[in-house]
Design a protein that fits this description.
single chain, 270 residues, alpha+beta, CNF1/YfiH-like putative cysteine hydrolases, six-stranded mixed sheet, five-stranded antiparallel sheet, 14 strands, 25% strand, globular
Length: 270
């Protein structure tokens, strides 16, 4: 289940998952910002052709509305599987890490990925000591970005929880034989995530493929899924629906410092 939250500056989705109370995560929706035209209105990406001032203003709105503890570690996403560790404060004007996932092991370090059809996946351990986010389009999924993120979290997979943010749904995501073959070559059971359509191509289920990838590495506490960025135009940007000229949503995760109460809750969970 996913919970919706509204604010004066916009709205976002939050996971309904079993983690310590110091774990925070959200995925933004497209409304509530200052961007215009194809980027209307809460575009958070600087690389898509939007007015840079609007993007900066939207990011400031996000920091204030979500009460982020620090500037997020924005990434230069390349549809790969590299995972970067967020180690501390983000310097103004710093070069963006080339990566498609980020993890953090301390409080007040905000990890983020941006999407507009690709699948964002958030990770946390139930104790509230580590978080991660991954950008998982089909190339990242077949390459192993989720498995790489799980490995980077350095935790027993049984103690990890994952949430699948909004992505293009199977009814809208048409792919060719080459995509299906690549997934089946990785895991024959992935065949269940592809349904042949009337055009002889395939409808692909990113959510199902992600759940299968997580199960292979022992992560079974997985929530979310079921939304469609392509079909839900009022809520989400969609690269495919909008012909490539569109904004991006952001999916973020961070930890607050743990308290004595948090530690007690963790003992109860275990």
């Amino acid at each position: 289940m996913t919970q919706g939250v509204s604010s004066p500056q916009g709205s976002w989705l939050t996971p309904d998952w079993d983690v310590a109370p110091n774990v925070h995560a959200l995925s933004t929706l497209r409304g509530g910002g200052l961007s215009m035209d194809a980027y209307a209105s809460f575009n958070l990406a600087q690389h898509v052709g939007d007015d840079p001032e609007h993007v900066r203003a939207n990011r400031a709105l996000l920091r204030a509305a979500a009460k982020l503890p620090s500037e997020p570690l924005w990434l230069e996403q390349v549809h790969g599987i590299h995972v970067v560790e967020h180690r501390g404060p983000v310097a103004t004007g710093a070069v963006l890490p080339r990566a498609d996932a980020a993890v953090a092991f301390g409080p007040d370090r905000v990890c983020v990925v941006m999407t507009a059809d690709c699948l964002p996946v958030v990770f946390a351990d139930r104790a509230g000591t580590r978080i991660g986010v991954a950008h998982a389009g089909w190339r990242g999924l077949v390459g192993g970005v989720l498995e790489a993120t799980v490995a980077a979290l350095q935790a027993e997979p049984a103690q990890l929880v994952a949430w699948l943010g909004p992505a293009i749904g199977p009814a809208a995501f048409e792919v060719g034989t080459e995509v299906r073959d690549a997934f089946i070559a990785r895991d024959a059971a992935n065949v269940a995530a592809f349904v042949r359509n009337e055009a002889g191509r395939f409808q692909a289920d990113l959510y199902g493929l992600a759940r299968r990838a997580l199960a292979r590495v022992g992560v079974y506490r997985v929530s979310g899924g079921g939304r469609c960025t392509q079909r839900e135009a009022a809520e989400f940007f969609s690269f495919r629906r909008d012909g490539g000229r569109t904004g991006r949503m952001a999916t973020l995760a961070w930890l607050e410092p743990r308290t004595t109460t948090d530690s007690h809750a963790h003992r109860v969970l275990i």
